[in-house]
Amino acid sequence: MSKRKSILDSNAFYTLIAIVIGFLVGALLLGLAGINPGTAYGKLLSSVFSKPKSIAWSVIYASPLILTGLSVAFSYRMGVFNIGAEGQFVVGSLAACVVGILVDVPAIIHVPLCILAAMMAGALWSLLVGLLKVKKGINEVLSFIMFNWIAFYLSNYIVNLKIVHKESGGEATKDVLKSALIFLPKSIRTALGCTNANYGILLAVAAAIIMWFILKKTTLGYRICAVGFNPNAAKYSGINSGRTVMIAMGISGALAGLGGAVQVLGMSTRISQFASQEGFGFQGITVALIGGGNPIGCIFSGLFYGAMKYGGSKLSLINAPSEIVDIIMGTIIFFIAISLLFKNILISKRHKKKEAK
Predict the structure, then answer these.
(1) In the chain, helix, strand, coil percent, each to 5?
(2) Which of 16, 37, 167, 243 is exposed most, by the fewest CB atoms within 10 A?
């Protein structure tokens, strides 16, 4: 009975149910569109697992998502909903790109410099919102949304500056210098059949482990969780809530900025003028929710989402809409969001049975 109770109380159990429901809803919609769900899902799976190249691409797609997921999950532990990971991602990618283009130094210096610039830019973007929250009491959700749009237009402005703009025309920057790229050695990329295989996944996993360690094994992690559970109680116990919020939001922004650096230095190698927001930060919210707000869980949920994005891009080969992936992920998030209600109902029923006895 205790084993069954632990399963029913586990967030992973409800996440698994939500994933199953998501795929069932996707199958239903595919059927209504006259597309065989088995064929579509078969293509989705084969697109991801059929070749080492496909797996490598799924991991490439996943790396920045893991980092934006970590950004959202880390701030959420403190009770702050970081809907601004999108803007932090954008300014991080912008900083990495500009440093990657304008600074000409050996790779051993150039790569860390680009990554540091991206993390500092992301942290600064988040800290500005944190300052408004701590000093003026301004709701961080509203500020984050505004800062997302500021980052969007700032990026489009800088992309068109002559110093970084592509000389041959087009609405994009120059490519970053080769010394700034984080690609794996050519022999490994050749063996995988993937020219863009990079170290991003290692950075993402390392960041997840560090965030887990901070939250579980340090006094800073204790303070962050305490403020998240009850800010007033934390303040009463002597914790400086404002300072803790600022530190956590800075770390959160740095993670999203790192995600932007991984995307630019390991995949796109440049920044194009945006027609709309790319969505890496918003997809990070999905990763954080599927991962249960756990840094290690974000690794697996990020890999899952990355595989879905890459596999979904191949559905057009069988005339199935790639948007079905967005529907599946949206359904998963919806049922994860309401799973707490089901969990509380089960717990309530269990307590009533105990009281009846």
Answers:
(1) 75, 0, 20
(2) 167
DSSP 8-state code for residue 50: S
State the chain's maximal CA–CA distance in angstroms.
Answer: 79
Q: Which of 277, 253, 278 lies closest to 88 in space, CA to CA?
A: 253
Q: How far apart are CA 249 and CA 266, in angstroms?
A: 25
Q: What letter represents residue 124's amino acid?
A: L
Supply angle C-alpha 283, 284, 285, rounded to 5. 90
Helix count (H) and strand count (E) of the chain? Answer: 15, 0
d(CA 86, CA 90): 6
CA-wise closest residue to 340 among 59, 119, 18: 18
Residue closest to 107 by CA, chosen among 276, 4, 115, 189: 115
Other beta carbons within 10 Å of 110: 21
**Residuewise pLDDT in 10s, the chain (357 residues):** 466 666 556 677 778 888 888 999 989 988 988 888 888 889 888 889 888 999 999 999 999 999 999 999 999 988 888 999 999 999 999 999 999 999 999 999 999 999 999 999 999 999 999 999 999 989 999 999 999 999 999 999 999 999 999 887 678 999 999 999 999 999 999 999 999 999 999 999 999 999 999 999 999 999 998 988 888 788 888 888 889 999 999 999 999 999 999 999 999 999 999 877 888 999 999 999 899 889 999 999 999 999 999 988 888 877 888 788 888 888 888 888 777 676 667 667 766 666 666
In 3-state terms, what secondary structure has residue 349? helix
- Written as six digits, the tokens of 274 are 């945006």
- Predicted TM-score of the model (pTM): 0.91
Q: Tell me the three state secondary structure of residue 183.
A: strand
Phi/psi at 190 (5° precision): -65, -40
- Are 124 and 253 a contacting pair, CB within 8 Å? yes
Q: Which residue has 């922004």 as its token pair? A: 253
Where residue 293 falls (left for φ over 0; alpha for ψ -120 to 50; beta otherwise) is left
Q: Return the exposure string of 35-73: e unless at least 16 CB atoms fall within 10 Å of the residue's CB, then b.
A: bebeebbebbeebbeeeeebbbbbbbbbbbbbbbbbbbb
Structure tokens at 145: 């949304």
